[in-house]
Amino acid sequence: MHADYLAKRFAVFLLIVWLAATLNFFLPRLSGQDPVRVKLLQQAQLGGYVQTGIEAMVKEYEQRFGLDKPLWSQYVTYLKDVARLDFNYSIANYPRRVNEIIAEAIPWTVALLGTTTLLSFSIGTFLGALLAWPRAPRWMRYLMPPLWALHAIPFFLFGLILMYLLAFQLNVLPMFGGYSAGAFPGLTLEFVVDVITHSILPAMSIVLVATGGWALAMRGMMVTTQGEDYVTFAEAKGLKSLTIFLRYCVRNAILPQTTALALALGQILSGAVLVEVIFGYPGVGTLLFLAIRENDHFLIQGIVFTVVVALGLATLILDVLYPWLDPRITYRRK
Amino acid sequence: MSERHKAKRVSRREFIKAGTLAAGAAALSPTLVAAQAPRPKAVPRNRTLILTWIGSREGRWVDYELWNPYSLGSNHQNGPGIFYEPLAYYSAFGDKEYLWLAESYKYSPDFKDLTIKTRTGIKWSDGVPFSAEDVAYTLNSLRDLGPKVRWGVDVQQFMQEARATDPNTVVIKFKLPSPRFFYFMTYKYDIGVYIVPKHIFQGQDWTTFKHFDVAKGWPVTTSPWKVVFSSPEQKVIDRRDEWWAAQAGLAPMPKVERNIWLPNAGEQQSAQGLITNQIDYGMSMQPATFPTMFRGNPKITTHSGQKPPYGYMDWWPISLYVNNERPPFNDKDIRWAVSYFIDRQQVVDVGYVGASLQSPLPLPEYPALRPYIDSVKDLLAKHNTLEFNPKKGEELLTRKGWKKDSTGFWVDAQGNRIKLDIIGFGGSGPAIGPVIVEQLRRNGVDASISLPPDFDDRFQKGQYTGSIYGHGGSVNDPYHTLRLYQSVSVAVPGGHLVNFARWKNEAYNKIVDDVYVTDMTNKAKLMELWRKAMEIWIPELPDIPLVHNIHRIPMSTTYWTNWPTEQNPYINGAFWHLTYAIVLWNLQPTQ
Predict the structure, then answer these.
(1) What is the DSSP string of A61-96?
(2) pLDDT digit string (tens) for A113-143?
(3) Within the 112-131 window of chain A, which residues sit less than 8 Å (CB to CB) from chain B?
(4) Which of A292, B70, B77, B198 is the most buried (most CB within 10 A)?
(5) ipTM exceeding 0.90?
């Protein structure tokens, strides 16, 4: 791989990040809403009362957040801040800083969505491969219809059903939250089990729904791969069925799945918004939902930028790793 | 490939191993992050009160570090409210003032001075004695900070200076007569001045100071509570061993040993949590949810028991606002016509499944306000603000030259319809908005409903035609509701005016100014002025009264009893209000 290719690819990455950062700056402002005013009015009217001096408070805090400056000036300041990975204060949660708020949410989302994405990918890919394999057990055919049906259900809806059945009716799993009320964090087996138990319902609602998608895609690619000459040749050579399945079919069919996996992993930071909201799971999805609802421009910018960088990096890394995954691909000059 | 390269190359097996380890670490990352916090002592479930609250924070407490209620991102409704004890509490249900940090107070005859005597023997949780200096410091700081913090402008516009003349006396000098200043500082609903410890807040920037450090015992408080743990997932507040009010015999030591605040995950989840006894106290819910909860857990109750309206009358009666500056709603006859087209009982039956009450005036029917409401019954009989009478509405419109077109909508001479685009927000808009719109359309008014995200901004700026909203006004004297409609005030120069309805009436403005300078205890004078104001307000109908706002708060008696109810109405049951401390010291364990 040439250094100039890497440099070019990195430049594209930077360009994407800058474009996304720019959109990220202007889009929330298109709503025409003043986040400080909205925040102060919401706070003042939470109890139905309008306190004195809202206008004066709006001016005071607009100045503090730099929102009283011309848009171009705000944009320049924003780009400088972004270059230092500093997203300023959260407007809705002042004086808390955006970076610390996002940092608190990321582990929950990475844990939930990282695990569920990898699990659904592994199970879905394996099932999909088997479903296309003529020598797979017959009972496996009955797996596909329910998987497809589940795939058509939105995560959050399935989550509600699971919650009703498993948490409410059967009471075998906790209903919401990252861990039990009154439990205190610590590196103890009890707490680890508590956290895992709380993640089972949201995880199940994602894994069971997403697995069907991975399986469907893998099955399609396996069917194509099985028709390839090298598979026919391997069969003619009398290779073991398992060898043909794993080394000739799965290995070749899995490449597009890997691309999709990298992109899916890049997207996990955006969180499964509705699933997190339904289960009261304290991840990035819930945070983004709150930030949008409260018009917290700085927090929205911080989250979206983090997601964009994660996605851009995932694509960049994938580009760099691809030749290693598939020897047929090379970036060498001919 | 060279040997050196081969040696460095990572095999697929190693790659998978490393990936699996990384995934495992990622899966456990919440526990690793959370493990940094200290672990408080264990408290049994039957001494723990668990509540769930929205506070604009579904699923997480983003503000878990903010225990200084004066910082912009903080909100007393999310827990800090119980840590800053007030000079006094007021219970609108009992029409009772509980002097708290203050022992007594006295105004000068011209209401330009207020002398407050504070109690002796009160200590902050770090052992420093509470004194009049703390009160004076709080008020002077608010005056100096002005628009930087909540209540700053309210204090700035009235107060000249607060001075501690001895450890238990504060003398407040006002710029203008301020007969309601002590009441303003008193905790009731969401209003009241939080008194802060001078030795902690002095030298801090109030707008950025978080006042949170469990190791240091922050927030420092005079209350019987301490924060033992606070994170995005839960706020855990434990009872302290000592409390000056219990020692002074003012209140019993709370039996609640631990109060856990969970961020709300949604109404369904809260209901399920209450049914399964995972939660004891929930946020206000839709009426249709209650029968299901009662079936699932008979131990759940509400202020009105297990019968409608499943709650109590909040201080926030709801009206259909019409913008009095926009034709044709600048004409009182059109406002009355719209009022006659609304069947409020149907609004209650359909919008709230029968679990609400009609409201003839924009103030709640609390004990202290009932005499005022009763005093205008004759005016209400003549101008019935609750009357559903489409014929009367039609007569009014016909008299004004309006006619119905072929599609059944009222049009003026130019063919313009009475167009009423109503905006609302999550509180009451979705429940009753569609019902009202349908009623108005059936009676020829071209109405519609929407819930814009910038509702508050548009409503406050008068950028609306119609709106469904309440009144944060009076609970014990009529001034605070009357002032909601003042367009100009001479008595409070430069004072903030609410006037959402954009209604203007000079005679009314003058009466409200007279009410302002009247002593709150001079009921006869207040009654006379109130009646004069209503003689203008009722026939003018600046906004169209609809229903009372009901707080439908579920409370579980599985672990706790002596909740505030109809039979025992010591306070309103909203734990997000500043009077929640009173509920806490009244609750009794069942086990």
Answers:
(1) HHHHHTTTS-HHHHHHHHHHHHHTT---B-STTTTS
(2) 888 889 999 999 999 999 988 888 888 888 8
(3) 114-115, 118
(4) B70
(5) no
